Amino acid sequence: MLAKETGLTALLFNLVFDIYRSWSSLTRSPSKFRWRHEGLWSRLSKGLIVLIMLAIARLALLQGSLPAFSPQDNPPAFHPSFIVRLMTFCYLAAFNWWLLLCPWTLSHDWQMGSIPLITSGWDPRNLITGAALVALMALSYRCLMDLELQRHTPLVVGLMLLVIPYLPASNLLVTVGFVVAERVLYIPSVGSVLLTVYGVQILCHRGGRWLAIGLAVLVAAGAARTFDRNRDWRTRETLLRADLAVLPHNAKLHYNFANFLKDIEQQENAIKHYKEALKLWPSYASAHNNLGTLVLASGRAEHHFLQALKYNKDHVNAHYNLAKLYR
């Protein structure tokens, strides 16, 4: 729980679920509210105290301040327009939900403009955001209508697990060092599965052979995608090649692949990918530095070392390489 902020939301989920389970009795006996529900308030107060203590401990581990991130880590967070930030972050929430429903576009690194900013209200991706918002509102409304009778508990639990653990990673409350990270979707994936299975269960009551066939196809497709993605993770090279095929405009992936090619002494290909990384992200200091080490013979090394220091004056390797060049 102290390692990742999403761990703290497990306690918050328990508190909210406790209120949900006690809601009907709370509203039915307002006159006996105090003495009949002392156990509930005791649990809530203890849970809140533990939650606050863990949050304080987490801040203490961070030396009392939130981590500092750069535009490379989270480009939307540094855009000057609030509207652009809001539209992009809302779309990212919808995109993460879509990853849970259809995990086709996967990558181990989503930095450096992997998802372009939404700078206009006419961007078609806003339709995806709107559709996700409508679906979320519909599910929330159904949950609120279920507070008294509580006939659809799996729906409520699924929605809470989908939303609450994702909040710290949404960029809507605090800035985090990524735009998309599959690792923060572990707990929300449980909620997504609950919602999906519960929806299928309701549809199954209506019968239909086509529904069973569609469900079988969906399960088979998910299994095939899992098998295919596991093969991507076999080696460093297979992972980088697979992710570059999905996100060819990700400068960080080109940089990492260039590092791999440099390690196996494919210098020409490494230079090509370093240049592609700089084309996509011109202020990439580390790419300038590493490219400089490969173009010493051409006389362009000094330019790239100086560019690296221009964009990051504290880049130790660039200082060292430039000093070696001047020696």
TrEMBL record:
Location within or outside the cell: Endoplasmic reticulum; Membrane
DUF1736 domain mapped to chain residues: 64-136
One family name in Pfam for this protein: TPR_11
ATP-binding keyword on record: no
Pathway: Protein modification; protein glycosylation
Annotated catalysed reactions: a di-trans,poly-cis-dolichyl beta-D-mannosyl phosphate + L-seryl-[protein] = 3-O-(alpha-D-mannosyl)-L-seryl-[protein] + a di-trans,poly-cis-dolichyl phosphate + H(+); a di-trans,poly-cis-dolichyl beta-D-mannosyl phosphate + L-threonyl-[protein] = 3-O-(alpha-D-mannosyl)-L-threonyl-[protein] + a di-trans,poly-cis-dolichyl phosphate + H(+)
Function: Transfers mannosyl residues to the hydroxyl group of serine or threonine residues.
PANTHER family in the cross-refs: PROTEIN O-MANNOSYL-TRANSFERASE TMTC1, PTHR44809
Family, as annotated: Belongs to the TMTC family.
Protein's name according to its UniProt entry: dolichyl-phosphate-mannose--protein mannosyltransferase
Taxonomic path: Eukaryota, Metazoa, Ecdysozoa, Arthropoda, Hexapoda
